[in-house]
Specification:
The structure holds 2 protein chains of 2 kinds.
Chain A: H1 17-27, H2 34-49, H3 55-66, H4 72-115, H5 119-144, H6 153-169, H7 174-187
Chain B: H1 3-15, H2 24-34, H3 40-52, H4 60-82, H5 88-96, H6 102-130, H7 134-149, H8 154-173
Helix pairs in contact in B: 1-2, 1-4, 3-4, 7-8
The chains are: A mainly alpha, B mainly alpha.
GO molecular function, one term (chain A): chromate transmembrane transporter activity
Protein name (chain A): Chromate transporter
Transmembrane segments (chain A): 63-84, 91-114, 120-144, 151-168, 174-191
């Protein structure tokens, strides 16, 4: 079962730029719960439904985006676009993932004083945000699952628990923990085939 | 405040932070405390607006830009938000060629698993804010169950949760 889920397909057909922009406009803008929810949705759309990238390419984008300053989600979308169709794909993905939600935020900012006390709007937001907690938990599982394979479960558990201990117990910033894990990963002995 | 000036201030904040709201202290320091072009109340409103709309949490800089300079400020905020994202391209260009190298695979595995653990940790403060009674706990639990055992799109689950919450609110009011 080891790494069976990480499948490579080297001869994929590149999606058209409009398809990339369309996908990110639809799925990267209208999900509550921040980037985690969006990653979960995009995983399903890009790998399971459209087969644009392999699991390992998706993982590469996700991991590198976590190490880049700014909004990780936008770096992640840009990376996916680049992997799918190089420069044009990156631009389409970045615009598709950021313009619609930025416009929505702009309109909401303009109208904020009108709806900030509306009980219906507030109730809808409460419901959506409650569900976002569930989305965050599920996303943690979705991104970790391909790596939880026989032979490396102990190491995976150590890294996960170690990260939580450093974050909760010692208040170490997330980026420092991620960079430390990157260094540990690079220095680990390489398993022989 | 000029467009370029605002862009540079916001970019400094976004490019030196690694999470959605992590840039907030830098923006507060530059725009509220030093330049006095934004109030604390507006900064809070910007955060509330972004939390109340779908999409990345970091989008609050668009709202901040609008409060400072209107629509052109919002554009400066959007540019400051997207600029750091392009840094992933040279990294992918380099790492993509070595995707199958065992050391890179190990590195990616460690970062992804650590990210998953940190995401799990992030659910707790979110839950503290969002789960305020039995009904919101029930919404989160049912949502989680549906996500794991069905193939229903997350969008529909979130929408259903919002509609149920509105229904409950109307019932409670009547």
């Amino acid at each position: 079962m080891a790494d069976e889920t990480i499948v490579e397909t080297s001869h994929r057909k590149s999606p058209e730029p409009w398809q990339i922009a369309n996908l990110f406009a639809r799925y990267a803008n209208f999900t509550w719960g921040g980037g985690s929810a969006t990653v979960s949705v995009l995983h399903k759309e890009i790998i399971d439904r459209r087969d644009w990238l392999s699991e390992s390419e998706f993982t590469l984008c996700f991991a590198l985006a976590r190490l880049i300053p700014g909004t990780n989600l936008l770096a992640f979308c840009t990376g996916i676009g680049w992997m799918a169709r190089r420069g044009g794909g990156a631009v389409c993905a970045l615009l598709g993932a950021s313009v619609p939600s930025a416009l929505l935020v702009l309109v909401c900012t303009m109208l904020f004083s009108f709806w900030e006390h509306d009980p219906i709007v507030q109730a809808a937001i409460r419901g959506a945000v409650a569900c976002a907690v569930a989305v965050t938990v599920r996303t943690a599982w979705v991104i970790a699952r391909p790596h939880v394979v026989q032979g490396s479960r102990t190491m995976i558990a150590l890294v996960a628990v170690g990260s939580l201990v450093l974050y909760w117990g010692f208040d170490i910033p997330a980026i420092d923990i991620l960079l430390s894990c990157a260094v540990v990963g690079a220095l680990l002995p390489v398993a022989r085939a | 405040m000029s467009f370029l000036d605002l862009y540079v201030v916001l970019l400094r904040a976004t490019i030196t932070s690694f999470a959605g709201l992590a840039s907030l202290p830098a923006i507060q320091d530059a725009l509220v405390l030093h330049r006095h072009v934004l109030t604390e109340a507006q900064l809070n409103e910007a955060v509330v607006i972004t939390r109340s709309t779908p999409g990345a949490v970091g989008l609050y800089v668009v709202s901040v830009g609008y409060f400072v300079s209107g629509v052109s400020g919002a554009v400066a905020g959007w540019l400051a938000l997207v600029t750091p994202a392009v840094m992933i391209v040279p990294l992918l260009h380099y790492a993509g060629r070595r995707l199958h190298h065992p050391r890179l695979q190990n590195l990616l595995k460690m970062v992804v698993v650590s990210s998953a653990a940190l995401l799990f940790a992030a659910a707790f403060p979110l839950a503290k804010d969002a789960l305020t009674g039995w009904f919101t706990y029930a919404l989160a639990a049912i949502g989680l169950l549906l996500m794991f055992v069905t193939k229903i799109d997350i969008f529909w689950i979130i929408l259903g949760s919002a509609i149920l919450s509105v229904g409950m609110s109307v019932l409670a009011a009547s």
